[in-house]
Amino acid sequence: MNKSKKIIIVGDSAFAEIAYEYFTYDSEYEVVAFSVESEYLHKSEMFGLPVVAFETIETLYEPDKHFFFVAAVYTQLNRLRTRLYLEAKRKGYHAASYISSNAFVWKNVELGEHCFIFEDNTVQPFVKIGNNVVLWSGNHIGHHSKVSDNCFIASHVVLSGYVEIDQNCFLGVNATISNNITVQSDCIIGAGAVVVKNVDEDRVVKGVVQEPKGSARRISRVKA
């Protein structure tokens, strides 16, 4: 595959290693470096490439000639990845996305920037996906659904038709969201949860969620 673009991976975690593999062997991007904030700079290289301080990265790699991807997971409800993504953009770098060659993404899907879509995802017609979204492997994103900015969807999640996931949400492995459901911002949908009613913002849900009930922490928990 022709490597026409150079990319810096922000991060040195397992996700950074995985991102390196996918960008290297299944994209037009050539990985040239890794970068972390200086407080966490504990290694000098990965895969034979330099690991450099994020704060001064532009002194080594010209922003207008390089792309970036922040390989961070859902820490702080995706806010760590979001902060680094916005800071890299402010430095002048171009945000990169990755869509696996083994994912099915219909031609009229609206996809934002700085997204990572793993293999075996099915993204149906008329779906809208915002900026800074990760779809781990094996998800079903149903027709006319919307996933807003800064979300992380783990593996084998099912969003049925006309589902809306607002900003800064995390959906755990094997979660299922029924048709015409809205999950408002800053929610955690636990592994295996089945959601058939709308979910208010700033909630944790797990089990079978039929009638979300609030608590002092605005958390809805109904065990199956």
Quickly count the helices: 2
Calculate Rg over CA atoms: 18 Å
Number of strands: 25
Largest sheet: 7 strands, parallel
Structural class: mainly beta
Name of the CATH superfamily of the largest domain = Hexapeptide repeat proteins
> What helical percentage do the residues reach?
10-25%
Mean pLDDT: 93
Which second-level CATH architecture of the largest domain applies? 3 Solenoid
Which runs of at least 5 residues are low in confidence (pLDDT < 50)? 214-224
CATH fold descriptor of the largest domain: UDP N-Acetylglucosamine Acyltransferase, domain 1
Classify the oligomer: single chain
Shape: globular
Account of the 3D structure:
- With 224 residues, the protein is mainly beta.
- The chain has two domains: 5-96, Rossmann fold; 97-207, 3 Solenoid (UDP N-Acetylglucosamine Acyltransferase, domain 1), CATH 2.160.10.
- The protein is built from two helices and 25 strands.
- It has a seven-stranded parallel sheet with strand order 7-10-13-16-19-22-24, with no helix packed on it.
- Strand 1 (5-10), helix 1 (14-25) and strand 2 (29-36) form a beta-alpha-beta unit.
- It starts with a strand and ends in a 15-residue tail after the last strand.
- The model is unreliable at 214-224 (pLDDT under 50).
Structure, briefly:
With 224 residues, this protein is mainly beta.
Protein topology:
Elements (H helix, E strand, L loop, with lengths): L4 E6 L3 H12 L3 E8 L8 E2 L2 E5 L13 E4 L8 H12 L3 E2 L2 E2 L4 E2 L4 E2 L4 E2 L4 E2 L4 E2 L4 E2 L4 E2 L4 E2 L4 E2 L4 E2 L4 E2 L4 E2 L4 E2 L4 E2 L4 E2 L4 E2 L8 E2 L2 E2 L15
Parallel strand pairs: 1-2, 1-5, 2-4, 5-6, 7-10, 8-11, 9-12, 10-13, 11-14, 12-15, 13-16, 14-17, 15-18, 16-19, 17-20, 18-21, 19-22, 20-23, 22-24, 23-25
Antiparallel strand pairs: 3-4
